[in-house]
Amino acid sequence: MARQRPIAIELDSEAEPSDPLGRAEFGLRQRLEGDGRVHPKELTEALERQEGAGGRLSTALWELGLVDEVRLRTLGAELFGVPPALPGDVASAPEDVIGLLEREFVSTYRVAPFARNREVLLVATAEPWRLPLLDSIGSRLGCRVEPRFLDEAPLARLLGELYGLPVDERFSAEPRKRQAAAPTPADTPRSTDEKSGVFGSTSQLMSETSFEAIYHRGDSQPAGGASPADEPAPTAEALPSAAPAPSPTLPIPCDADPLPAPARSRALRLLDTIESWDARYDTRRAAPLGLEESREALATTADAHQLGWVLARHTLTLGRRVVLFLHRSDVWMGWTGAGDGVTPEAIAALMLPSQAGTLFGAVAAARAPWTGPVTEHPIHDRFLHVLGGGERPRNAALVPVCLTDQIGLGIYLDGGPGGALPESLWSIAKLASEVPTALERLAIPTTG
């Protein structure tokens, strides 16, 4: 594709709102005061830092180590009423998209284009209220421009990386380590009764014991247990494992915390409409995505294919090869794949039965995660051949996404030919547990 010539744009900013930033910062203070995550004395310190150094309240909060960038990005996007821009997506933007705007323009108006199709260009910006700016870009490029929120500090670092712009020292410095403060409601361990509401329909994947073993490093602390910071991350062995056959040692079925019947039906119907992978999400160019960014993206996905894209990208942080399956009538149907030697077209042609003696049969029977060696079996052999052949991986994992009493999706990962998975697999199990809620949201009919 021919690279478009960078454009220069003249702007008329008279139509901008009066003080959207002031309203957003007032809302940020209210949110932080309301949820108790920042002590009043700490908030006062951040306001004094902002007054002395300038910039935004969010930057002062980050510099002082009071609130991390993920939470600030999520809150900012909510307050401005636009989706967030994930730094990983901006950093991996195609060169032809980056080149749409010239360096001088980007330096002046602080926007970073990072994704485009025929109709829409997505730009990361710390000022999403500047609609005349977005309209001017769109009118000259012949497309609609949609803002995605990214705060001033991470945006400045990315503009330095992508366009070679100078980065203010305060934006590139490490945030200060937070000092111990008086306990806040956010520091108080949740009770066992509250646990099922923290992650949504999490206990449907495994027993309570397995839930504690895998998820206690997340947002909640097991009742009566040690602090998550004092314990090592669960290893792959902490995931329910078995020989490639149904086993009574596998956890209970995943209907322990059911979705309401109407929600389950809507989510299953949504999955049933998927015929093939959407080419807009090219898994051959998938860049790994961290857990917190993946959870954030999962909560704002626009369709099922983008949901799968997020799952594939996070799974690449743990394995060398990833396959997403749709599960229909006890058959595992290839949806897409990513990683070493994996082609989405080959994966889309896969149809594997849930036969006893295979990892696919074990997961279908127990409706729970599986990890272990990929043993010799005709179905395993066919599957590995589609992945590119070579030496068997030393171990692999298959994590189901359950909708009450049915498996909707499956996430397979391994370390590549002859390779092994890392010791900790808890993050993919945690992310998979949040998929039912995301599917339910996508499946709710829109009005208007």
Question: What labels would you give this structure?
Answer:
alpha+beta, GMP Synthetase, Chain A, domain 3, Beta-Lactamase, 20 helices, elongated
Q: How is the secondary structure organized here?
A:
Blueprint: H1 20-35, H2 40-53, H3 57-63, H4 69-80, H5 87-91, H6 95-98, H7 103-109, E1 111-116, E2 120-125, H8 131-141, E3 144-149, H9 152-163, H10 169-172, H11 195-198, H12 208-215, H13 261-272, H14 291-298, H15 304-315, E4 321-328, E5 331-339, H16 344-348, E6 351-353, H17 359-366, E7 370-372, H18 378-386, E8 396-403, E9 406-414, H19 426-433, H20 435-443
Parallel strand pairs: 2-3
Antiparallel strand pairs: 1-2, 4-5, 4-9, 5-6, 7-8, 8-9
Q: TL;DR of this structure?
A:
With 448 residues, the protein is α+β, with helices and mostly antiparallel strands. It has helices spanning 20-35, 40-53, 57-63, 69-80, 87-91, 95-98, 103-109, 131-141, 152-163, 169-172, 195-198, 208-215, 261-272, 291-298, 304-315, 344-348, 359-366, 378-386, 426-433, 435-443; strands at residues 111-116, 120-125, 144-149, 321-328, 331-339, 351-353, 370-372, 396-403, 406-414. The strands form two sheets. The protein has a six-stranded antiparallel sheet with strand order 6-5-4-9-8-7, sandwiched between helices. Strands 1-2-3 form a three-stranded mixed sheet, sandwiched between helices.
Describe the protein in words.
The chain has 20 helices and 9 strands. The protein is α+β, with helices and mostly antiparallel strands and 448 residues long. The strands form 2 sheets. Strands 6-5-4-9-8-7 form a 6-stranded antiparallel sheet, with helices on both faces. Helix 13 (261-272) crosses helix 20. It is elongated, with a radius of gyration of 23 Å. The two termini are 38 Å apart. Mean pLDDT is 74; it is low at 8-17 and 181-259.
